[in-house]
Amino acid sequence: MKQQSPVKKVLNTLRPYRVLLGFAVLFALVSVSLTLYIPVLVGQAIDHIIGKGNVEFADVARILLYIAVAVAGVTVCQWLMNYFVNLVSFRTVRDLRRAVFRKFNSVPLSYIDTHAHGDLISRVINDVDAVGDGLTQLILQLFSGVVTIVGTLIFMLMIDWRIGLAVFVLTPLSLFVAGFIGKLSAKRFREQQLLQGEISSFVEEYVGSQRVVKAFSYENQSFEDFDKFNTELYTVGFKAQYAGALANPTTRLVNAIVYAAVGIIGALTVLSGGLTVGGLSCFLTYANQYTKPFNEVTGVLTQLQTGIAAAARVFEVLEAPDETPEASGNSPAHRGEVRFDDVSFSYTPDKPLIQHFSLNVKSGTHVAIVGPTGCGKTTLINLLMRFYDVNGGSISVDGTDIRDLRRDDLRARFGMVLQDSWLFHGTIRENLRYGNENATDEEIVAAAKAAYAHSFIRRMPKGYDAVISEGGGNLSQGQKQLLCIARAMLSNPEILILDEATSSIDTLTEIRVQKAFAKMMKGRTSFVVAHRLSTIKESDVILVMRDGNIIEQGNHEELLAKKGFYHTLYHSQFGGSK
Amino acid sequence: MFKLRRFLTDYKKECIIGPLCKLFEAILELFVPLVMANIIDVGIKNGDAGYVWRMGGLLVLLAVLGWSSAMFTQYFASKASQGAGTKIRRALFAHINTLSHAELDRLGTPSLITRITNDTNAVQQAIAMMIRLLTRAPFIIGGSLVMAMTINLKLSLIFFAAAVLIALTLYLVMTRSVPIFSAMQKKLDRIARIARENLSGNRVIRAFSKQKTECARVDEATEDLAKTSIRVSRLSALLSPVTYAVTDIAIIAIVWFGAIDVSLGGMHTGDIVALVSYMTQILLAMIVVANLVTLMTRASASAKRINEVFETEPGVKETTKNPIEIDKTAPQIEFDNVSFTYSDDGDEELSDISFSVRRGQTVGIIGGTGSGKSTLARLIPRFYDVTKGAVRVDGRDVRDYPFSQLRPQMGIVPQQSVLFSGTIRDNLRWQDKNATEEEMITALKIAQAYEFVEKLPQGLDSRVEQGGKNFSGGQRQRLCIARALVKHPQILILDDSFSALDLATDAALRKALRENTHGMTVIMITQRSATVKSADLILVMNDGRLAGQGTHEQLFAGCEIYRDICLSQQTETEAAQ
């Protein structure tokens, strides 16, 4: 299974459309055989036109009527065949895109964190498109091609089986040549798709952060960097296109030589009395017809090869390992107890981050985590939400190891506001409702008011129905944070996690928001990561972290009395005035 | 499509020779049946085996000639199409670089990605196909028409009628499908946008367990695209069958009217055979044209989208490229009655702001969320143009400067700490490609980042993932500060750049900045009153207006909003100190 070629994998995805494809084959069969038959009918009609005053009009009319019927048949069948093939390939494109998206949400988060987003987008957009293009061409050429080949072959063998056999054996020679060229150029096509992905990543990164580019007058440099990729794409693209395009003339050359050979052998056979002149001319016509599908397949070879290279990239994503499978476990209690038991974790094996970390949080406790940047605060939250799995030890919620819970069930208990405020393209109302689809308009407004977002929302041209562009557009960082807070409030979680959730909000608003949180979280467990120590003074437990370990623990007064690291941190706030 | 032809001007040679080679090949092709006929008519008739061999050799020669000429066509087609595509991408990226944020927001990053890749590919493919196929078909069609006319002028009318009908079909299908193709690309943009959101917001999606909703959104968007694609394919799938039907009906007409003519003694039966075979030639050529038209239709929809980018005028434009004279005695930064709105229908974001900053001063800007602090700072490097009033740097309106003179003297640390994929060294060299190791280390030290960078196994050469994801928020922010400091800018703008720092680091950083930035004008936007306290000038923003300006003492005594902010963060005695 694993060593399957990308072509086979694509063909596997066609399976649901077997019936449609079956019909397409049927229509191809009908339309191709009629196409082959019409010239015969025309010939017959002409046979009834003998000369001046000697035309059998009745017969001509009858045959022409047949032709008309056949033409109608061809037209309808051809249209249906084209349509069905398009139907199948567009649906396959749709299915592939859906599968890739599902993958985005089922791979471990580390996959998303370590892959360039622009490249992944390019796989969803460009590579899947290329697969679709290749597929359409492949099916269309394949169906009508196979039927034509089989049909003409039968005719040829009937006329003279020896020459027929020669044509039958010689023509695939062109396919062999095409295959050879294809193999030679396959690498270039892979490189081409790879570079497309890199260009997408580059554009995603640099256009997405155009503000920074402008701030540093980096336009020229970024253009130069872009052009490096671009020039490379030109070199590789040109080679791929040209190599791919060589296949068609070369097959045609081989086929033309075969045709010449048939002519010579045929003529010599006629000379030795083995064949009639009429038979030879008929034979040549069919030989011509027979080679055409081979030429046409190589004519779309570049598209096919792009498609294959693209398919490999799409399946690379689809075959990325999923998160560890879901446990079926349900969590009996809903008290909000959290326990870290000898937890160890690191993102990369050579850089240990959290080691032998233990902590017991009783239900309803407000926990604050402070410490210098990079000490592992956010990582702790990544583990708690099971964005990453621990390397050693265990984390349990209400006595159940979180690895024994379904991720959705686990996460549904948490309400989370992160440092990076993420909003999607949609109205403010849709964004707020994200964590709670059933929220009424009143509840939305109430949450927005609690998060002190109501007043600025109301001042926007369309209020709650104002559309936020991707990434938040003209909203300030602080406003985006307020919206994320309102969103979390609306989801009404059992356990609240705030990771630097108010870092960009002015202090007056922050205090009010904190109060609203406090009211909402009464009796519920919460974790707050913060730098502004004033905001966490009231917490039940403050954990002071350094280099992945808790170095101090206690409430505000206790920690101050210790005169340890926390004491230093707290007083640094007034460093300027002392 | 035609608007993009300027990208082909460097490929005139390729665009002319390529099709000519194709034409040559087509002409050679015409000889093949003639030679074959000679083999039969002369060789077999005379029983001349030598003649058969000679003519057979000629066939092979024709094939080889055709092959070499086709190789040239392919070469030129590949070169011109890839070359033009490369030029389009280059021009697109260069143009996007000139656009200001307002335009980029409107076009959207994911859409720009599809335009640079997917749409450009479509145009590129169309160019290649045009060079490969465009001459052959008209040549064969034209040639067949002329031949038909020489055989029977009256019957050739049928040819013309068929040609008109087919042209009409092509035209109808094309005009009808262009808008659908445009719609398709737009829907593709939407999928790209959802993809980008799903990637950047993956954590939030999982936190809210919204995978199903996202799947539904994708399902809907992909279904929508599939439906539109199928709708357009219903139209374009019509082209070849209709072409087929029209030519075959023409053949029926030829046979019928030909029969009448033959019966009246107007022409011979052989003439009908010839006419029919010319019609068949036309049919084959027409099928090629039909496929080409489908390709061109899609490409022209893409070309339109590419042109849309080119036609988007940058909202903020340079008036000159040449450096201008500045007045070193004037205030370094001066806001003169500045008002600003982001969009025409929006509320004023800033109203009547006036203040001036002397060289070397440290300015603190403080105020509520959404009060316009960042907007104000963005006007100094001219990311946006003021709606009213003027912003002056060194005595000259920022609108008079070339960007290359205005912006490089500023070190800007944006609100969102964005790093770019590469190494730490690459990122630190943004301000100046040739920054020395020493300059970078000094900057890192001031930004309090050296300590952790030094500890990394590869130090300055450590990898930075896209956006800086492999660093914590605070580390990222410090690296962004260091990046801005590398070339010791005249003006340093810190847009809430300490928000992710713990207070000890914050204090140490401010101290280092004070000690190392002599002569540097520092604009510091912040939420923390402790940060602005020692500033030479504090601006208090409230709802887009300047609620007060002065020193800490002046404002604490005279500005209620400022006093409230300070008090919310410290005890009264501490604050008053």
Question: Overview of this structure, please?
Answer:
The complex is a heterodimer of chains A (578) and B (577). Chain A is an alpha/beta fold and 578 residues long. Chain A folds into two domains: 6-318, Up-down Bundle (ABC transporter transmembrane region fold), CATH 1.20.1560.10; 338-577, 3-Layer(aba) Sandwich (Rossmann fold). In chain A, 62% of the residues lie in helices and 11% in strands. In chain A, a hairpin with a 2-residue loop joins strand 1 and strand 2 (54-55). Chain B has 577 residues and is α/β, with parallel strands linked by helices. Chain B has a domain at 2-311: ABC transporter type 1, transmembrane domain (ABC transporter transmembrane region fold, Up-down Bundle), CATH 1.20.1560. A six-stranded mixed beta sheet of chain B has the order 6-9-10-3-11-12, with helices on both faces. In chain B, helix 4 packs antiparallel against helix 9 (269-311). The radius of gyration of chain B is 36 Å and the shape is elongated. The two termini of chain B are 69 Å apart. Chains A and B meet through helix 2, strand 1, strand 2, helix 3 and helix 4 of A and helix 1, helix 2, helix 3, helix 4 and helix 6 of B.
